[in-house]
From TrEMBL:
It comes from Fraxinus pennsylvanica. Belongs to the RLP family. SUPFAM superfamilies: L domain-like (SSF52058). PANTHER family: LEUCINE-RICH REPEAT SERINE/THREONINE-PROTEIN KINASE 1, LEUCINE-RICH REPEAT SERINE_THREONINE-PROTEIN KINASE 1. The chain crosses the membrane at residues 687-706. The lineage of its organism: Eukaryota, Viridiplantae, Streptophyta, Embryophyta, Tracheophyta. GO terms for biological process: defense response; response to other organism. This is Leucine-rich repeat-containing N-terminal plant-type domain-containing protein. Its main location: membrane.
Length: 709
């Protein structure tokens, strides 16, 4: 009855042309009366023949005579099929040219399936009523492309395997085209910028994530209704085409991660509806357009990772809708304190990192009450953190690393009030200033939501402050390269979420407390079940990981004056990936329990006073790619097998009593003194390795696991 009740007009016209008897008959078997066009039914059945449902699902039941009531089908009053909609059903198979017989079809949606093989474009020849085509998220590729049907308005071929080039004849006749999305395919060749010669209604063009290359030639300028233009993540180059600056209707230009060069023409400010400009990851030069402030609808200005120079135009501070402002990794400079941010009430994310800005942190940034992420790292800023920063209650990420600020204690007292702060990088931020007020530094309160804290290279001359122990959410703590004294506190071991600890390069003494072996977040059995995917917006692109979850789990206490035995309890930390105890005074044996650290990738025990043999069981550590016990007092033979067969001699040198067993052929075992590596020649050979190692550790060490924050 569905076919009847759904269409009252159709129903009435039927009544009019029928006798009462016929009408009664209709009521009894309306399904048959409305039964679909035979040609449509046949072509649907032939389509059906070529597809299969996933085994777990009930197969498509297209068995009754009336195809108009089949799942996914809609007919018009003439019983012709107008809609075929089978999105997300898990179908696989191919798309047959027989669909071309559904000549009344206006809507075809087969998105989110597993259709594969070549799409027979020829079928569109006959689909002269097709308005909407959605084949996104399948595995289709192009056969000869014959061009789009004349009636087409919306085309979504995104997320497939289409390849080859799109030439202008593809759009020939498609004079009603409004939206064209081919993102996430493998199209190559030039961008078909002549698209609007025939299709002057185009509003949406998405070419992103393909292999389009070369310059964008003139043509887009004809798209006088274009609102969204995306072609990011291709290999496009040359200057941005001039005629793009004449498309007044544009609200989004997203062309990131290409090879565009040259300047952004100041004429861009005439596109008054622009709300998104994303040109990051190109080779753009010149300055940020001076009159950018005319773009009063601008919400996102994303120009990071280019070669822009000059200063930030003061007019930008007139873009009161701005939410996202990313300018990192350019050659921008100028006095940041002269910028008046006070009108940017909507601003959420600002990244000026890795430029050459000078001056103080602008006080007027405090007017931007919506700020949640601020990164001014790697500039030449001076002065103190303004106390008004404490009012930024939404602030969750702050990185000021590598500047020349002063008063670390004052800074921490202010920031402790930012209740939502979860990531704080002050790495190398207070480089030249000895800390005077140690009492305040040791007695802070606040920071209850901190998840990552880096105070590396901040000239701290005190004990590890006990307030840190109250930060129940802390997962990463970097206090490396300070002058901290005293012992490593036992309470660190009871921090419920801590999984990355870096105390490298301090003056810490005493034993490594066995309690460190109880760090819950490093013990598989107790591991925190939620996958804390805290986004790290500013790390992305510089490091491989953009989620806190991906930070390497590590304990690094190298370059201190720690002594005593290596606690066997460390063996409980089965999720540990980096263990660095180098350059200390550890003595005794290497506990064989360390061979329980099945996820360990790096173990550095070099430059200590360790004696005894290297436990054979360490060969079980299959992921260990770096191992060093250099400069100790180990003896016996170096274990054989597993990763140990890949470690270079330099991993073991400086242990006069350590022997390397070497198999010559299969007959004789010769014991070689590893100290043979002290011969000048060999020493020089090992130098590049050591340099690499030092540089590697410097990078990881200096700014912890989050270098470049
Ligand atoms: C398919 O649908 C028809 C009615 O449209 C029904 O009679 C038949 O039992 C269904 N078949 C299966 C296998 O579900
Ligand atoms: C349906 O389309 C196919 C392919 O275009 C064609 O070969 C076939 O003759 C058509 N079927 C009918 C019944 O017209
Ligand atoms: C296709 O169907 C999916 C799922 O129903 C829907 O999300 C999508 O918007 C449809 N596409 C078009 C162009 O209507
Ligand atoms: C194009 O399709 C992709 C999905 O494959 C989608 O993410 C994107 O938003 C679409 N582009 C536009 C402009 O709607
Ligand atoms: C790109 O397409 C592939 C395959 O269809 C899909 O798995 C992936 O999610 C798509 N990527 C994006 C960003 O849409
Ligand atoms: C497109 O992909 C198909 C299937 O992978 C391949 O056979 C064909 O040669 C490709 N065409 C071009 C122009 O790369
Ligand atoms: C464009 O495609 C059509 C149809 O596939 C083909 O005949 C024509 O030669 C192509 N033109 C260019 C310039 O590649
Ligand atoms: C691409 O554009 C650049 C600058 O706009 C120009 O120097 C170059 O000749 C162009 N290349 C081609 C192939 O048109
Ligand atoms: C700008 O956008 C508004 C609202 O979306 C629209 O009404 C107006 O026509 C657009 N102006 C231009 C020049 O496209
Ligand atoms: C900006 O574009 C205009 C044409 O729209 C052109 O005349 C001018 O030279 C361009 N300026 C720069 C700096 O490229
Ligand atoms: C910016 O770079 C251009 C060359 O790309 C140069 O001509 C110009 O003088 C530079 N401007 C500033 C302010 O450094
Ligand atoms: C900002 O806008 C105001 C009012 O529209 C205007 O008077 C001022 O000159 C603009 N400032 C800049 C730097 O463009």
């Amino acid at each position: 009855m569905l076919g009847c009740t759904n269409r009252p007009d159709n129903f009435l016209s039927l009544i009019r042309s029928m006798s009462v008897l016929n009408f009664l008959f209709l009521l009894l078997s309306c399904v048959q009366v409305l039964s679909c066009n035979k040609l449509d039914r046949d072509s649907l059945l032939s389509f059906h023949k070529h597809i299969s449902s996933p085994p777990s699902d009930i197969p498509l039941n297209w068995s009754s005579t009336n195809c108009c009531i089949w799942e996914g089908i809609t007919c018009n009053s003439k019983s012709r099929v107008t809609h075929l909609s089978l999105s997300g059903k898990g179908f696989s198979g191919t798309i047959t040219p027989f669909l071309g017989n559904l000549t009344s079809l206006s809507y075809l949606n087969l998105s989110h399936n597993q259709f594969s093989g070549p799409l027979p474009f020829a079928l569109f020849h006959t689909l002269s009523n097709l308005e909407s085509l959605d084949l996104s998220y399948n595995l289709l590729y192009a056969s000869q492309n014959h061009g789009l049907p004349v009636s087409i308005q919306t085309v979504d071929l995104s997320s497939n395997r289409f390849n080859g080039s799109i030439n202008s004849s593809f759009f020939h006749g498609a004079s009603s085209l409004i939206s064209f999305n081919v993102s996430n395919n493998s199209f190559s060749g030039p961008l078909p910028s002549s698209i609007c010669i025939t299709s002057s209604f185009v509003k949406i063009l998405d070419f992103s994530m393909n292999k389009f290359s070369g310059n964008i030639s003139q043509g887009i300028g004809r798209c006088s209704k274009l609102e969204v233009f995306r072609a990011g993540l291709n290999s496009l180059s040359g200057w941005l085409p001039y005629d793009i600056y004449s498309v007044k209707t544009l609200s989004e230009i997203s062309l990131p991660e290409n090879y565009f060069s040259g300047p952004v023409n100041n004429s861009i400010v005439l596109l008054s509806n622009l709300s998104i400009i994303d040109l990051h990851g190109n080779e753009l030069t010149g300055e940020v357009p001076t009159d950018i402030g005319l773009l009063s609808n601008l919400k996102q200005l994303i120009l990071h990772t280019n070669s822009l120079n000059g200063s930030v135009p003061p007019s930008l501070m007139n873009c009161t809708s701005l939410k996202t402002l990313l300018l990192r990794n350019n050659h921008l400079g100028g006095k940041i304190s002269s910028l008046d941010f006070s009108k940017l009430k909507e601003l959420e994310t600002i990244d000026f990192g890795n430029n050459s800005f000078v001056g103080n942190i602008p006080v007027r940034l405090c007017f931007c009450k919506s700020l949640s992420a601020v990164r001014l790292a790697y500039n030449h800023l001076e002065g103190e953190i303004p106390s008004c920063v404490a009012v930024l209650k939404s602030l969750s990420h702050l990185s000021l690393a590598n500047n020349n600020l002063s008063d670390v204690v004052g800074a921490l007292k202010i920031l402790a009030n930012c209740h939502n702060l979860s990531v704080l990088f002050l790495t190398n931020c207070f480089r030249d200033e000895p800390v005077r007020d140690n009492y305040s530094l040791l007695h802070l309160t606040g920071f209850q939501n901190l998840q990552i804290l880096s105070l590396s290279g901040c000239q701290l001359k005190c004990e590890v402050p006990s307030w840190i122990g109250k930060l129940k959410k802390l997962r990463g703590l970097d206090l490396s390269y300070n002058q901290m004294t005293g012992t490593i506190p036992k309470w660190l071991g009871s921090m419920p979420r801590l999984f990355a600890l870096d105390l490298t390069g301090n003056h810490l003494s005493g034993e490594l407390p066995p309690e460190i072996g109880s760090l819950k977040a490093l013990i598989a059995a107790n591991a925190d079940s939620n996958l804390y995917y805290l986004a790290l917006p500013f790390l992305y692109g510089i490091l491989e990981y953009d989620r806190l979850f991906y930070l390497p789990r590590g304990i690094k206490v190298g370059n201190n004056i720690l002594s005593g035995n290596i606690p066997a309890e460390l063996g409980q930390l089965t999720r540990l990936r980096v263990l660095d105890l180098s350059d200390n005074n550890f003595s005794g044996c290497i506990p064989s329990e360390l061979s329980n650290l099945v996820n360990l990738e790096k173990m550095n025990l070099s430059a200590n006073n360790l004696s005894c043999e290297i436990p054979e069981s360490l060969t079980r550590l299959n992921f260990m790619s770096f191992f060093s016990v250099k400069n100790n007092d180990l003896q016996g033979e170096i274990p054989k097998g597993g990763q140990f067969d890949t470690f270079p001699n330099t991993s073991f040198e400086g242990n006069p009593k350590l022997l390397r067993r070497s198999f010559v052929g299969s007959r004789v075992d010769i014991l070689l003194l590893v100290t043979a590596a002290k011969e000048p020649e060999t020493l020089w050979h090992s130098l590049p390795f050591w340099l690499g190692y030092l540089v590697g550790f410097f990078l990881v060490g200096v700014s912890f696991l989050f270098n470049g924050s």
